[in-house]
Amino acid sequence: MSQSPAFRPLPFLAEAHSEPLPGLRLQRLRRAALEARERFVQEGPVAAVATCELVTFPYPAQFAFSGAALSPAPYVMMTNRMQVVQFVDAKGERRTLLFNPSDYERGVAAPFYHALRERYGGFVSDKLMSTRHGTVQSHLASLGLTPADVDYLAFDHLHIQDLRGWLGGDGVSAYFPRAKLLVQRAEWEMVKDLHPMQTVWFVPGGADIPAERVVLLDGDTWLGVGAAILSTPGHTRGNMSLAVATSREVFVVSENGVATESYTPLLSAIPGVRRFAEHMGWEVVLNGNTREDSLSQYSSMVVEKLFAGHSAVEGAFINFHPSSLLTSHLLSPGLAPTIVLPAPNFGDVRPTPASRRAA
Ligand SMILES: [Zn+2]
């Protein structure tokens, strides 16, 4: 496996994560998240970030708000998004990271989505129930980037991902000539030996990429000025979130919540969500398709909430930008998001200098 010495651990959080009792761990994580955030923003903003919409697809309504939303619709619609992030690392180099560059054409081979296609037919599930906004390739081209400009790929977790088209393996040639996958060690070890209750969400063989393309992360990782990976386990063992500082705010991206209101459920206008949160005494509502460790996922969402803070444009809401964003659709009445924050875009994305691109 590759090592990247230019990253640093994000301070305060690792110690809090190591507390074994879940209630005490949450208390300690709250303090640590605020301390880490303060240190993080002191270094200044990221160089650039762009948000790109990939595909809108159906997702079981019962999962989106842990069963809280009251609607007869079996599916909600979600829009997958990718962030292109450029940050200056500890060596002073500007690096390009793609966060959640889903290769959705390969991803439909995951057993869960395969079953959806079987049930509704390829035409319905692909044409009627899905909308393609652009591919990773087309978005990079419109930002003026080539595949050789990309240093790193990372995903909040590896459900539905097939990495072979991007990084090579199994006789497939790599689209990105020099990019490396940043992944939590816990996630990488897990995908190599899945439990039967996990298998439905994974593309068979999707993680069979060359070992030299993989950089293993151990917990919270400070990538460079204004960019960090937060360890946010629960949904999967090695789940992680992207945190970015711009000149006016911090935002966090993951799939732990499907909308910003997942972090402020008392402000949700979706029928059932506010009452559910009041009844349960929850301050966040989980996107709950896998319940591997719901206590950890809840605590991870509190970390995300405190680290992101409030939106600069919609101050009552948390500056959380879901990687799978709940999207209004005729097929899911009553399940439109209460609010959608403007997608994060900041600074100017630039190509990598030719000397490094060839390296
Ligand atoms: Zn997932």
From TrEMBL:
Similarity-based family: Belongs to the metallo-beta-lactamase superfamily.
SUPFAM superfamilies: Metallo-hydrolase/oxidoreductase
Name of this chain's protein: Metallo-beta-lactamase domain-containing protein
Cofactor(s) recorded in Swiss-Prot or TrEMBL: Zn(2+)
UniProt GO molecular function: hydrolase activity; metal ion binding
Higher taxonomy: Bacteria, Pseudomonadati, Myxococcota, Myxococcia, Myxococcales
Keyword set, alphabetical order: Hydrolase, Metal-binding, Zinc
Superkingdom per UniProt: Bacteria
